[in-house]
Design brief:
Bound molecules: glucose-6-phosphate
Strand order of the largest sheet: 1-2-13-12-10-11
Number of strands: 13
Shape: globular
Number of helices: 22
Largest sheet: 6 strands, mixed
Structural class: alpha/beta
Radius of gyration: 25 Å
Strand content: 5-15%
């Protein structure tokens, strides 16, 4: 039995400290310290992190950093960057940092430097994306490509879809981008209806090339193309694959010269930096993609070298743990006040919950504390007219990250002032609340008083950046990836496996034959599932 971090002296000290701090309102913490903003904010890699609106003091931070020391975080950072098999249940390295290792220093997996392979695939991506963008790569009937459709799911969809959406301002003017992930034919059907087969390029993205949803969608897309163009030779001009599984790509009937490779040491939710980023590269060009990698690399260097009290992922990870384990916060929200980042919360849901939604240690011992909070969020301003009510007056402690761009991608008079003032007003109001006395004064009456009081004391981080460039986006994503790592190490869990996702894949494959079989009487599952199966079969 490994020793759980919850049994350490520093955990007990944090508990005691929580008892002292919990009754103190954030307002009081600000009133006590005129330097609070300077003390609890950090600038690095083009980001300003203001974490002063959190329920913490210098003592809290010292204890949390002590916890990170006890968890041997620094050693783990070294292991991660060195290419050790930190994903112990799958015996794999987790080397997304090698994919954006712009210094090009050698990084070894099983004694082999991975950088030559990484660079070779990046060069192939440059060559291919240039030829599509320049119009040199033509479809089967000789026309230039105008639509790029990525078919993939999970890590082979969410990351590239989010980045492609976020960097719309950098898209090639001739190209339109689409992402098909859902196995429901409505998804691919609606998109195919919009497309011209002569000018469409499909990218089939699957690490394993065995994923049911992706293969079904890929088959349907291929059939559609052949039906429309009348020749299966057209496939070679309209389909490329991204995968680690060369044999499976060939088995599927695709030319391996149209395949972009990556490796088993790239986790699905960390794969957007690899060839899985091909739909991004085709849309924004390789030079911008390299700026994106540069941004992530800068953050990697910061994570590797900055002291814990100035280290953005370490601070954000520890503050998140403080709320999860000592304030009982079950959720963590993220609100981008930057419309380009509208898919960012969805990407973070996968990145964080798939990584940290675990209940046993790396050695398989049951934990006695909670791990990953439920991640949710939506672009700022919209949320204010909907669920922010719960943040202002509900019963939950909801730590939230506000992501704020000083400049938008479009310069329209008045808009950005409205965005910025709303972002700042919300974090201010969430922190301050409004006391009964202030409410009375504001209303000049006691009417509905309890309903119009705001408790405040809701913790927020504010992350400010100049403008969402490819570089800043790379930095932001890497920041959250490393925040996940910090929490995984402190909680003693493996953030790089995903056995729950694997279970979903297996269960679906057992139910499919039951659904397709003619035998209505077979009872193979639980009574509810069997009842539902029979009902659906009877009504098809
Ligand atoms: C990511 C997960 C999962 C995976 C998808 C798609 O970390 O493992 O979301 O990305 O299940 O898998 P394939 O890329 O193998 O199709």
């Amino acid at each position: 039995m490994s020793t759980l971090i919850s049994h350490s002296a520093v955990w007990a000290a944090l508990k005691t400290h929580h008892t002292y701090l919990a009754p103190i309102h954030l307002r009081e913490l600000f009133a006590l310290d005129s330097q609070r903003f300077e003390r609890f904010s950090v600038k690095a890699c083009g980001l300003l992190l203001d974490y002063s609106k959190n329920r913490l003091t210098a003592d809290t931070l010292a204890l949390l950093q002590q916890l990170a020391v006890e968890a041997r975080l620094q050693d783990w950072i070294v292991r991660l960057f060195r290419g050790d098999k930190v994903n112990n249940t799958e015996q794999r390295a987790a080397l997304h940092v090698a994919l954006r290792n712009r210094s090009n220093r050698p990084i070894f997996v099983d004694g082999k430097d991975v950088m030559p392979d990484v660079n070779a695939v990046l060069a192939k991506m440059r060559q291919f994306s240039n030829s599509v963008r320049d119009g040199e790569w033509r479809g089967y009937t000789g026309k230039k490509i105008e639509s790029v459709v990525n078919i993939g799911i999970g890590g082979s969809d969410l990351g590239p879809a989010m980045v492609t959406r976020a960097l719309k301002a950098y898209h090639h003017p001739r190209l339109r981008s689409y992402f098909v992930s859902n196995v429901d034919s409505t998804h691919i059907g609606e998109i195919l209806d919009e497309l011209d087969p002569e000018t469409t390029l499909f990218i089939i993205a699957s690490k394993t090339f065995t994923t049911q949803e992706t293969l079904l969608n890929a088959r349907s897309a291929r059939q559609w193309l052949i039906d429309k163009l009348g020749d299966d030779k057209a496939v070679a001009k309209h389909f490329v694959a991204v995968s680690t599984a060369r044999e499976k790509v060939i088995e599927f009937g695709m030319d391996p010269t149209n395949m972009f490779e990556f490796w088993d040491w790239v986790g699905g939710r960390y794969s957007l930096w690899s060839a899985i980023g091909l739909p991004i590269v085709v849309m924004i060009g390789m030079d911008h993609f390299e700026e994106f990698l540069d941004g992530a690399h800068q953050l990697d260097q910061h994570f590797e070298t900055a002291p814990f009290d100035k280290n953005l992922p370490v601070l954000m990870g520890l503050i998140g743990l403080w709320y999860s384990n000592f304030f009982g916060a079950n959720t963590q929200a993220v609100f981008p006040y930057d419309y380009s980042l509208s898919l960012f919360p969805a990407h973070l849901q996968q990145l964080i919950m798939e990584s940290l939604g675990k209940r046993v240690t790396r050695d398989g011992d049951r934990l006695d504390y909670s791990t990953c909070p439920i991640i949710w969020g939506a672009p700022g301003n919209n949320g204010q007219h909907a669920f922010y009510q719960l943040l202002h007056q509900g019963t939950h402690c909801v730590p939230a990250d506000f992501l704020v761009a000083i400049e938008s991608q479009y310069q329209l008079a008045g808009h950005q002032d409205a965005v910025l003032s709303n972002a700042l007003a919300q974090t201010h109001a969430l922190m301050m609340g409004r006391t009964p006395e202030e409410t009375k004064q504001a209303l000049a009456s006691n009417e509905s008083l309890p309903h119009r009081v705001f408790p405040g004391n809701q913790p927020t981080n504010t992350l400010v950046y100049q403008k969402l460039t490819p570089q800043i986006l790379g930095t932001l994503i890497a920041l959250y990836e490393h925040k996940v790592f910090v929490q995984g190490i402190c909680w003693g869990i493996n953030p790089f496996d995903q056995w729950g996702v694997e279970l979903g894949k297996q269960v679906a494959s057992t139910l499919l034959p039951a659904l397709q079989s003619k035998d209505a009487e077979t009872v193979e599952h639980d009574l509810s599932t069997d009842g539902l199966l029979k009902y659906i079969k009877a009504h098809r």
